[in-house]
Amino acid sequence: MTGRVSTNMTAGGVQLNLRRQEAKVNKANNQIGSQNRIQELRDDPIAAGHLVRYQSYVDRITTFENNAKKLSDEFAVREGYMNSTLDMMQRIRELAVTGANGLYQKDDLRNMAAEVDQLLQQMVQNANATGPDGNSVFAGTNVKSTAFDIEMGNVEGSVEPMIASVRYNGNVETNRVEVDEHKYMVNDNVGNRTFWAEKQQLFGGRDASSWQAAEDSVISVDGQKIKIQAGDNVYALAAKINDSDAAVKASVDPVTRGLNLMTTDTRQLWLEDVSGSALNDLGIIKDASQRPPYNLGDSTRLSGGSMFDTVIALRNAMIAGDTESIGGRMIGALDSGINNLVTRLARSGAEYERAQQNMVRNSAVALATNQMISREGDLDFTKAVTDMKMLEYVYQSTLSTAGKMYQNSLLNYMR
Question: What whole-number distance in Å separates Cα of residue 402 and Cα of residue 11?
Fold first, then answer.
């Protein structure tokens, strides 16, 4: 048996090799154009797997860096308003000390009251500030609302309405912002903590010695949810509050048998029934239709106010010429408010520094990871250009050889 090599087989082989050369040239062109060595996963499966992980990590690091930048900006804006308020509180304290020495007449005290009232208005303006993004700076997570509502009223001795009360309109929720893998910073911009002057105490007026929870329920104390089981008595409830993360301590009054609550630092009490009606049954708060923090029961007694309450009381005492009140509790409340602001400023400054450190670290980590990506996926440009020229030379040589092999045509046989 004899075999032969047909002309079509030779032509097919030449065409196949030409297509392969074109594919190699095209791949080299794509690599040079994109400057990426890996065009398909099969080019280098191991390096491609590393690249996917590295690029995903860089994306996350970039997000963490942006989160830290945003936090730094928010801390800086908030710190500016707090510093301004601290300056005003110190000036108000100077006026209080001056007015309490008994050397000034009532007309002089009224003149001081005019300055205190203007400082009060500026304090409220600071508390209701909005940031560059249009969000309220001191409203917790309720950023689209005004942090504090103002109620105007008549003050004896004044011919025009003045600020009579300032009520918090935000919430006590905080944002947890991720600045590293599973590492978070808390953005605490709750206004009724920043602008509060005294620890707040609540005295329950209802005898709770016979109270028992009728059903499983959940209460919220200072934003911390506490579970109550059916059958719990008031002592069990007090123990659960004390064991929680809430900045509130609970006790049972030995005389009235009522539930007493006190904040562990300068802030306003925030109480609500999340499910069930435990606090309402104890007379601590009104029904669930009332919104905290102004939902306390009628039988409760409350002490400890905000900086605004203290400044309003000082202004009214100056207008009335009551030097005894000025030199008593008011100066102590002002000192407490100033100390609270200083503490908050120190904390804000520390948080700002931490956010800055996270920015620096994330930037360095992103740079190192980009170097890994470059090592795994970037193209060696010099080698690629050399290989490209070689491929073009081979391709042209193949075309030249094929042309010489098939240079004869039908006309060659017709001569």
Answer: 9
The structure tokens listed for 69 are 């930048």
Kindly report the CA angle at 183 between 177 and 188, in degrees rounded to 5? Answer: 35
pLDDT given for residue 404 in this prediction: 65
Q: Which residues contact 375 (CB under 8 A, 6 or more apart)?
A: none
**Does the pTM of the predicted model rise above 0.70?**
yes
- Are the CB atoms for 249 and 257 separated by under 8 Å? no
- Residue 306, beta-bridge partner list: 196
User: Which position has the higher pLDDT, 101 or 233?
Assistant: 233
Distance CA 271, CA 241 (A): 11
Is 171:139 a contact under the CB 8 Å cutoff?
yes
Residues 6+ apart with CB under 8 A from 169: 139, 142, 145, 146, 147, 148, 149
Q: Angle formed by the axes of helices 381-405 and 7-34, to 10°? A: 160
The residue type at 291? R
**What's the rounded Cα separation, in Å, for the pair 375 and 36?**
11
CA-CA-CA-CA dihedral for 32, 33, 35, 39, to nearest 10: -90
Q: What is the DSSP letter of 326?
A: I
CA angle 156, 160, 161 (to 5 degrees): 80
Of residues 224 and 409, more confidence is placed in 224
